[in-house]
Queue: 3 jobs
Job 1
Amino acid sequence: MTLQRKLTRTVSIGPVAMGGGAPVVVQAMTNTDTADVLKTAIQVAELARAGAEMVRITVNSPEAAAAVPEIRDQLLRMDVDVPLIGDFHYNGHRLLTDYPACAEALAKFRINPGNVGFGKKKDEQFAQMIELAVRYNKPVRIGVNWGSLDQSVLARVMDANATAANPRSANEVMREALILSALESAALAESIGLPGDRIVLSCKVSSVQDLIAVYRDLSARCDYPLHLGLTEAGMGSKGIVASTAAMAVLLQEGIGDTIRVSLTPEPNGSRSLEVQVAQELLQTMGLRAFTPLVTACPGCGRTTSVFFQELASEVQNYVRAAMPQWRDQYDGVENMTLAVMGCIVNGPGESKHANIGISLPGTGEVPAAPVFEDGVKTVTLRGDNIANEFKDIIDRYVARTYQRKA
C-alpha cells in the first residue's frame, strides 16, 4: 500500500526539497551553546551523520550570531554540508540586522510569531525579519508554539468565542488561535514580499490528540509545507511513544513534510537518538528507507536462551555501522530486510519473508540455524561462530545483490 500525501508547495532549503511530493525530511536540533563553535559543529556533524537532513541551532545572542558562519566553515572542513536553521526568539530582528554573515550562513530562519515582539513592536519586528529573509533569499518556518502563543490572537479568539451561539471548548479555542497565528503571519509575510514557496508552517503542542487535531485543521486550510512534531515529547520510551502516536496518524493521512522527534536526552546521552527514531518511524511506515531493518523474535518460553537476542542486537549494530560505507558503494541497500528469529514456530516462515533471515533453535530443538536468502534456504549454521558467519553472509549478499555506484 502506497500512502497518498497531500500535495503542498515545494520549498527548497539548501539542497533539500520540502513539500511538493518530496520525501518527508528528518530534522534535528542541537542543545549546545551556539557560541561554542567547535562543540556545536561536532554535535551538528553527529546529527547529520546519524541522518538528520536539516539541523536547527539556537541563535539567541550576539555571540551566537557571530559564531554561525564559523560553525558553517568548521562543518565544511569536517565534510558536513547539512543545512543550518537559525532559531530566533525575541531579538532575531536585531541579530540578523547586526550580523549579516549569520543571515548568509543560515539555510532557513525559524520565527516564532509569539516571541517576535510585543505590542506595537510585534508587526514591525516581524516585518524586519521577513525583509531580511527576502534580502538574503532565505525560506522561513513560521513556528507557532502553544507555550508561547501570541496573546493578542488568543484574546481575539476567546472574545469571539464568548459571544458565539455555540461556544467551543478551551482546547478548541487554543487550537484555533494557533492556526490563526500561523496563517495570519504567513499572509503578512507574503504581503511584505516573501514568496509563498519560501514559507513553512508549524503549530506545535505537547498533547498527542491536540497535535493531530490542529494539523488536520491547518492542513485543510493551507497548502504550505508543514513541519510536524510534539514540542516537548518527553524522555525515553514516553517521548518515543508520544511522538510516534501523534505523527504516525498524520503521516498516514498524508499530512507532514518534515518531522522532528523532540526527545529529552538522558544526561550526557547522544542527541542522535531523535534522528534514529524519526528515521525508523518513516521507514516502518513505508515512507522512506534509511538503513536495513531487523525483524526479531520477542522471545517466549520456547526461547530460554538469550543467544537470539544477542545475535539480533549484534546484527542491527553491525548493519548500522556498515551502512555509511554501503550507502556510498551500493544503490538501494537501505531497502534490504533482515530477520533474526528464535525458534521453529515462526522462525523459518518469517526468515523466508526477509531478504536474509536466520532461524535459531529454540529450547530443546536441534542445535542448527537454517539461513534463508530471498525465501530460499541456502545454508545451515552450527557451532560457536554463527554470528560471524551470518555477518559474512550479509556482506556477500550485499556485494552481489546491489549495484555498485559509479
Job 2
Amino acid sequence: MSTSTNTNKLAHFLADDQLTKVQLLALIDLAIKIKKSPQQYNQILAGKSVAMIFEKPSLRTHVSFDMGINKLGGHALYLGQQNGKLGERERVSDYAKNLSCFADLIVARVFSHDAIQDLAEHASVPVVNALCDLFHPCQALADFVTLTEQFGDLSTVKLAYVGDGNNVSNSLMIMAATLGVDFTLVTPQGHEATAAMISKAEQLALKSGSKFTCTTDINVIGNQDVIYTDTWVSMGDEDASKKAAILAKFSPYQVNHELMEKADASIVMHCQPAHLEEEITTALFDSAMSVVFQQAENRMWAQNAVLVSLFS
C-alpha cells in the first residue's frame, strides 16, 4: 500500500504489513461510524464506478462489496471467472491500464499476491486486495472492527488462531502485531506460517509491545479471550484422499466447547464458509459465543471505510 505525502492517506489497500497502527485505528473508527450513520456517507461514491475482479468464487466478499458500494452511492461491475486468470488472456499491466480508463477503483480477489501488486503498479486508480494467496486484509480489518465492538480497547484482547496457516491467519497476526494485540498462532506441524511471515509478525509485535506466540502444540494455547479458526481444506484441495489425510492430521485442532473452556475464551470467530464438525463444531458455531455473522456484516462496513478513505 503506497501512500501520498500525508502518511495516513491511503493510496491502495493491498497488504496488512503496509498499514500503520494509526491507519488501522482510523479505519476501524471510520467503519464503526459508517455502520452507525450510513446515511451520512451515502453520496461519497456518487458518480464513481468500481471494477470488481473475481478469479475465485465468493459469497461474502462479492455481496459485501457490491452492496457496500451501492450504499455509498457508487456503481459496481462484477468481472468473474469467465475472464480467466489474470495474466493469461492478456498481461496484468494491460488489464490494469484498460480498467483504469473506465473505473475509479479496482477491487481484486485473486490467486496470487503478485497479481495484486502488478495491478497496483500499472493502474492509475486505487486497488483493493479482496483476497490473495498471502493476505486477506479486508477480512482482518472487519475482524478487528468486530473485536473493537466486543471489547472496546484492543490492547486488552488476547486472540488465538487455531488451524491451517493461511492468508487469513497471516493477515490476523500481522494486523494484531501492528495494533498491539497479543496473538497466538496454533497450527499443526507442517502447516505453519512461513518463516518470513512469522519474522514480520515478531518484528511488528516488538515495535507495538504486544506478545506474539507461535506453536504446533494445541495443549499450550494458554488463556485467551478469543479463538479464531478457518477451514482446514482450502478451495481446490477437496480431493477425497487429500481431504481424509488433512482431517486426520487436523482433528486435534478442532475448535469446540472443550477448547473454549480450556482457554477460558468467551468468543469464537470464523471467516466462513465453515465446514461444520471439521474445524469447528456446529454447537459452538451456532452458540452465543459465536460472532461469525457480526464479522460477516462488518466486512461491508470495514470495506466501506477503506473505500471512503481512498476517495477522501
Job 3
Amino acid sequence: MNKLKLSDLEVAYRGKTVLRVDKAVFEHRKIYGIVGPSGSGKSTLLRAMTLLEQPAAGRMDVFGTVVDLSSLTHAKGLPLQRRIGYVPQKPTMFDSTVFDNVALGLRYRGTDRTAIRSLVTEALELVELGHTAKQRAHTLSGGEAQRIALARVLVYQPDLLFLDEPTANLDPYHIAIFERVLKAIQQTRDITILIVTHNLQQARRLTDECLFIHKGRIVENGSTEAFFTRPKSPELQDFLCGRMIY
C-alpha cells in the first residue's frame, strides 16, 4: 500500500467538535500543503495524525497498517509514532552541541555509535548544516535551529514528515533554504510530507497538492495548480483573494 488514509476522524473539546474529516487520502512521496484561517483545525489535524492528540473517533491506514485512533494506547501507538517525524513551529534546542541535539533520540533508542555517527552526519548534510556539528546549539540562528529540528527527526528515517508552520518565524533567506531542503528530502527520501502553512505562496511553490480547511472541515483539496488557479468553493476563492471569511 502506498497511501495514507484518514476516515471518520473527529476531534472534540468539551463536547464540541472542532475537526471532522470524513475522508482524506495522501499519496506516497508527495508534499501536501494544509492551509486555512487561524483556528480552522489545521494544527489539530496534524496532532491527531501524529498521535499527540487522541480524537473522539477515527481510523488511519498508514500504508497498509490500519489503526483505530480513538482507542489507541501509548504502548500500541509507539510503533506507529516511530514512523512519523513531527516538527513544530518553535524548535527546542538542548544545551549541547548540534551533533548531540540530533543524536539524542537515537541514543535513547540504544542505537550503536557507528550508526549514530552515520545517521546524524547524513541528516546534517541533508539540511545543509554539516559544518555546524561541533557548534553549540544555542548559538544557531532561528533558521538554522529550525533545520536542526528537522534533522533531529530525519535521523529516524520516518515514512511521514509533518511540519506545523515551520517557517512562520523565519526571514525570506532562511525560508528559501528550508524549502530547498524539503525538496531535496522529497527527492532523496522515501517519505510523504504534510506542511501546515499560512504562507500561500510557499504552499504554491512547494507542494504537489493542497487542502483547504475551514471551520474544522476539509472544504476543498486537489492538485496545487488547480487549487490556486481554479478554486471551486466560494470560501477558498475568498481566502485566496485575501477577503475575510468566517
